[in-house]
Amino acid sequence: MKLYARIVSPYVRKVRVFAKETRTEARFETFMMSSAAEHRQFVPPLNPMGKIPVMELDNGKGFADSPYICEMLDSLHDGPKMFPTGPDRWQVRQLLALGDGITDCAIMATGEARMRPEQFREQSVIDFQLLKVSRGLDALEEKVGAELDGKLNVGVFAVACAMGYLEFRIPDFFRKQSSAHPKLYAWYESFKQRPSMIETAPRDEVSAKTQAPSS
Ligand SMILES: N[C@@H](CCC(=O)N[C@@H](CS)C(=O)NCC(=O)O)C(=O)O
User: Fold this and answer.
1) 54 with 123, same domain?
2) Is 157 in the pocket of ligand 1 (CB under 6 A)?
3) What are the φ and ψ backbone dihedral angles of 179, each rounded to 5 degrees?
4) DSSP secondary structure letter of residue 144
5) Domain range enclosing 119
6) Is the pTM of this model over 0.85?
């Protein structure tokens, strides 16, 4: 299998963290694209939505959407499952939805800020999305010590990658939110020291800078 990826994508990061933590990384190769041109060339034939991550299966078909890619990888190992089937089954799915939901809203905010020429930028759209992000952080603050307590699961990875995206793309907003969410920020500071997080940290794609912005 082959994962189509970009280093800046928080959803790709979640899949890569997942693969490292479940030791399923050797089951696929990663094609790290470095430009919007490569994205446009390779991704739509595999995923009609044109989004990454997408996994090219061994039969040549595309398998899309990060939660499903993670769930598929979870079926390929015999270690502790990151999509639990016990009593915390639905709670973990909701944590995944919250982490990915924060990322979705943050991307809408940064897309408005980065992809539109300044005169067409609508500050109220950015504020509307960032309000959702800060409500999401409020909800996560309540979960530290309970759902965010050192256990590993797909929901925890989604939350960590959402925090990583905020820190990378909207650092001022990220810093401003810290005083209202001290437990969450302490949890994240510790979690991001994991090798899986360090090895997948986002950075700007040098060659893509003059092309259409990415996430
Ligand atoms: N729900 C999808 C979201 C994927 C997504 O939005 N990926 C972004 C990159 S971070 C993308 O490919 N955007 C390009 C586009 O929308 O055309 C997932 O979890 O995989």
Assistant:
1) no
2) no
3) -65, -30
4) B
5) 89-194
6) yes
